[in-house]
Design brief:
By secondary structure, the protein is of the alpha+beta class. Helices cover 21% and strands 26% of the residues. The chain is globular and about 80 Å long. It starts with a helix and ends in a 9-residue tail after the last helix.
């Protein structure tokens, strides 16, 4: 079906491309088109609309003209223009000096202001959620979103915690205009400098500097990367772009001085002493704070993540059923230490374990009191309690099914705004992805979420050609695990030999076989007398499991959970006992000589022995 989808899509684009672009103007960040999302075709473009309202936008139009963007905003396209009013521009000038005017701006300032306020996708306010607008602006910076109320209780949408939308969703032919009461001024600092500059974070900032870990948060962009724009689509018709750039970013989870004080920590010496208690294995390196085994170093590095995760990107809910708990397992920069993040009625939780009475640490959404949390190379989030990779956390992980969407294992996808970008596809040159290596004979695609695909979190990666792919799996605590591979079968797939840590495992996996094939033996639950219990056992004996019940595909008005779909499968790769917590590697090598055969990559599961072999049957989530 996906080959057919691609052929139809590109045929339509060749024939009626302009019409598609016009309709797409109303397309929001979640990929849903509602009656409220359609554009009012006034005949105006972004530029011409503002030009006819000089009393509101004349100062911003000076910026647009000087930056050379008049032509772009006057042509077909899909833009969100976050337009400061004249009053907003005058406030900005005043902040720079009493006699400052537009003519006082340098060419660099003009260019930066103009591109800061333009996003090359359309976002209605009804599509915005707390966190960040999914697509970066033309300066490759994310605009942060939060919601507040005014003195009479009216909802306000605030960008970067300082600029309010005062006239929303002005629909024009090539996009949308949101009028702002302040000029957006994102910080140009790097993430460690942004933390150091906040006097409410002095203890964490001191520890970040003392451990030398601030120096590990300085990269911003791989300047050696050159996009390749000639990849064909999976169907062979048309082109799939490579990413435009290769940004490098970080996320830092930070305790404020107030949070530390509530835990008896009032200065850096107190934190050193507490870290020695929390991480006693670092006692041999007590005074060598830059050593990765030092206790303070372990404590701080567990707060660092090597990708930019805005608040609304910790959890991906595409294709999920309503009212389920969503999980994400994230590798920290502390060697061999991961964390679990899940949503909760009170917000995002880290390492929550309700079965053992552990409520976890809450990630606080951005507010006006801590507005500058977004740096040019990352973001930091305040947390409400001390974050530790404790024995309790490891116990939780050893009693939890650890499911990773494969795209979550590739930091570049999150940092560069690729992951979760609905309906968008990319092809990667070698070297773009640190954690996924592939041979020069391989083609590797990321296919953004579609609601009609039976994929965990809606997206997938796809290998093509004589592929040979090696994926670095994240570390898990030492123990015995069943390793599983989640995929979606269909007739366009291929056959691959699987290797774990360099060793071939079992017979090749044939992704062309549907689950109801006799070799697998899938039977729909509603055709059994016991809701599929015996069928589950039979499939397990053959090395397979049905898909989970927590996500679904949508075809027209018909919804089907993955468990009930004969294409959604989990292959049990094997049972492994790991005597350390280091990363492992899984390799997929094509055994066919068919250049069109696809290798579908969806998710991986580490399932501890307490789950797959316990006295209680594993849940179907």
């Amino acid at each position: 079906m996906k080959n057919l989808f691609y052929k139809l899509r590109f045929s339509v684009f060749r024939k009626i491309g302009v019409l598609i672009l016009v309709i797409a103007v109303g397309y929001g960040c979640n990929g849903d088109i509602t009656s409220d999302s359609y554009v009012t075709f006034t005949g105006e473009m972004v530029y011409s609309y503002m030009q006819k309202k000089p009393e509101t936008y004349s100062e911003f139009l000076k910026v647009i003209n000087s930056a050379g963007l008049k032509g772009m905003l006057s042509a077909y396209g899909t833009y969100s223009c976050l337009a400061p009013t004249n009053d907003a521009m005058n406030l900005y000038y005043k902040s720079l000096g009493a006699s400052f005017t537009f003519d006082s701006l340098t060419a660099e300032q003009v260019d930066y202001i103009a591109k800061t306020h333009i996003i090359p996708e359309v976002y209605l306010t009804s599509n915005l959620v707390t966190g960040a607008i999914p697509t970066p602006n033309m300066n490759q910076r994310y605009i942060l979103i939060n919601f507040t109320t005014d003195s009479v209780g009216k909802l306000q949408i605030v960008l970067n915690s300082e600029s309010k939308i005062i006239n929303k969703d002005i629909k024009v032919y090539n996009g949308i205009i949101q009028s702002l009461d302040r000029v957006l001024q994102p910080s140009n600092a790097q993430i460690p400098d942004l933390i150091v500059a906040n006097d409410k974070l002095s203890i964490f900032a001191s520890a970040l500097t003392l451990t030398g870990l601030s120096d590990s948060l300085r990269l911003n962009e791989d300047k050696s990367y050159v996009p390749i724009l000639t990849f064909t689509t999976i169907s062979g018709s048309g082109n799939t772009p490579s990413p435009e750039y290769r940004k490098i970013g970080y996320t830092v989870l930070v305790e404020s001085d107030e949070v530390f004080a509530a835990n008896g920590i009032n200065n850096i010496d107190d934190l050193k002493a507490k870290a020695a208690e929390w991480y006693p294995s670092g006692s041999a390196y007590a005074n060598d704070f830059t050593n990765r085994k030092n206790s303070l170093n372990q404590f701080i590095s567990y707060h660092l993540i090597n990708k930019t995760i805005n608040y609304n990107n910790f959890i991906y809910k595409s294709n999920s059923l309503p009212n389920v708990i969503h999980y994400e397992f994230i590798e920290s920069m502390c060697p061999n230490a991961i964390m679990k993040v899940n949503d909760d009625l009170s917000g995002l939780k880290i390492n929550q374990d309700l079965d053992r009475g552990i409520n976890g640490v809450t990630i606080l959404s951005q507010d006006a009191a801590n507005k500058d949390q977004s740096a040019m190379n990352g973001v930091y989030h305040l947390i409400d309690n001390v974050l530790l990779y404790s024995e309790a956390t490891q116990t939780m992980l050893l009693n939890t099914r650890i499911r990773f969407d494969i795209s979550s294992l590739l930091p570049e996808l999150t940092t560069n705004g690729i992951r979760g970008l609905a309906g968008k596809d990319f092809c990667f040159p070698q070297g773009y992805l640190d954690n996924l290596q592939f041979s020069k004979e391989s083609k590797l695609y990321y296919l953004g979420p579609r609601l009609n695909w039976e994929d965990y979190q809606g997206d997938e990666l796809m290998g093509l050609g004589s592929y040979d792919l090696t994926l670095r799996l994240p570390p898990v605590p030492a123990g015995t695990y069943e390793l599983r591979y989640g995929y979606n079968a269909n007739q366009f797939r291929g056959v691959a030999q699987i290797y774990v840590d360099g060793q071939p495992i079992g017979i090749p996996l044939d992704l062309r076989i549907w689950a109801d094939n006799a070799k697998i033996g899938w039977i729909s639950d509603d055709l059994t007398l016991d809701n599929g219990v015996e069928n589950d056992k039979m499939m397990r004996n053959r090395g397979y499991l049905k898909g989970p019940i927590t996500f679904q595909s949508l075809n027209g008005d018909v919804k089907m959970i993955a468990r009930n779909h004969k294409g959604a499968l989990r292959r049990i790769i094997g049972t492994f006992t790991f005597d350390n917590s280091e990363p492992h590697y899984i390799r997929f090598k094509s055994v066919l000589e068919d250049p069109s055969a696809q290798f579908h990559m969806d998710y991986v599961e580490y399932v501890p022995k307490s789950i797959y072999g316990g006295s209680t049957a594993e849940d179907r989530n």
